[in-house]
Design a protein that fits this description.
The chain is of the alpha/beta class. It contains 8 helices and 15 strands.
């Protein structure tokens, strides 16, 4: 196969461009001497300039008449598919997406439409004579496996390699689409504290697990997150139970978070879950099981029922808000 390597970059308003897929695509393409391109959907001018500054590549600025910057992956998937076709990049050898739930949903759409192998979140990606080979972590990061496939492939990456100085900037090509999209699903905005903040960028994350027991418990976690200017996340069992949205799932199959403080409430501490927590985070664990794995990794451990601890913390913080100031903590 002689097709290009393409970075697919979903963009959100007010956020910096996730350049991980773009840098990974450039590295893979450069090693194989393949052409490289990037597709940005509904990007702001600043995000387009970020992509151009990555060096010598073609940046497709894609707009759709019926797409909102806040639309979900279900509506964005057909836009990326059509953009690949109309830009002439449908013969790609490799498509690179950001790791996480959005990237996974888009990868599924790309894989189905182009009969491409979806390899998941990978590192050390290389093009082979007939396809792609890469390394992928499993078992909570304790085991690394080699995955390979022939033909077109789709991968996700959290590549954060440093870019060297570039003497050239990318060429921007506009592409306007009007293909039919799936209907928007009804959205209800809920104003509870902590619900709207992203776990990916929060300095404090309050994560609940199976031990929370239900929606009521997560309401109390949101109260605590509101006091700490934090975000609420959850483990896979909590997401499967419907207590927390998949966008807030922390772990190997969810979001990677790197807060200053990670409060694990009713979380057992499986390797798959802890693989999603940055090594520098200070972990506070609250669990009734003194033998729970989470205590082996916690900086502070509280063996107690969350119903006794969390409401008491909320009362204390609300009565003395000066006890915790996000801007006045020790470095």
């Amino acid at each position: 196969m002689n097709g290009p390597v393409v970075a697919l970059c979903p963009c959100r308003p007010g956020e910096s461009l996730d350049v991980g897929p773009l840098r990974a695509a450039k590295t893979v393409a450069g090693e194989a001497g393949a052409p490289v391109a990037a597709i940005l959907v509904e990007a702001a001018d600043r995000q387009i300039e970020q992509a151009r500054s990555e060096g010598d590549l073609v940046v497709w600025d894609v707009r759709h008449a019926d797409l909102s910057p806040l639309d979900d992956a279900e509506r964005r998937g057909p836009v990326f598919v059509e953009a690949l076709k109309q830009s002439g990049l449908g013969d790609f050898r490799l498509a690179v997406l950001p790791a996480g739930h959005v990237g996974a949903a888009l990868a599924a759409a790309i894989g189905k439409s182009f009969d491409a192998a979806v390899l998941g979140a990978c590192a050390e990606i290389v093009l082979t004579a007939g396809g792609v080979e890469a390394r992928r972590s499993t078992c909570g990061g304790r085991v690394e496996i080699v995955v390979a496939a022939d033909g077109r492939c789709v991968v996700a990456t959290r590549d954060a390699s440093q870019r060297g100085p570039s003497r050239r900037v990318g060429e921007v090509r506009p592409l306007r689409l009007a293909t039919p999209l799936p209907d928007r699903r009804p959205v209800e905005r809920v104003g509870a504290a902590g619900r709207d903040r992203s776990v990916a960028t929060a300095r404090v994350v309050i994560a609940g697990g199976r031990g929370i027991g239900g929606d009521e418990g997560f309401d109390r976690l949101r109260d605590l997150a509101g006091c700490l200017d934090g975000a609420v996340g959850g483990s896979l069992p909590a997401v499967d139970a419907g207590w927390v949205p998949v966008s807030a799932q922390v772990g190997q199959s969810g979001q990677f978070v790197a807060p200053e403080v990670y409060v694990a409430v009713g979380v057992s501490g499986t390797p798959q879950h802890l693989a999603g927590v940055g090594a520098a985070a200070r972990i506070v664990a609250i669990n009734t099981d003194v033998d729970a794995d989470i205590f082996r990794f916690a900086d502070v451990g509280i063996v107690a029922a969350w119903r006794d601890v969390v409401p008491a913390l909320v009362r204390r913080l609300r009565s003395s808000p000066e006890a915790f100031s996000p801007d006045e903590r020790d470095p």
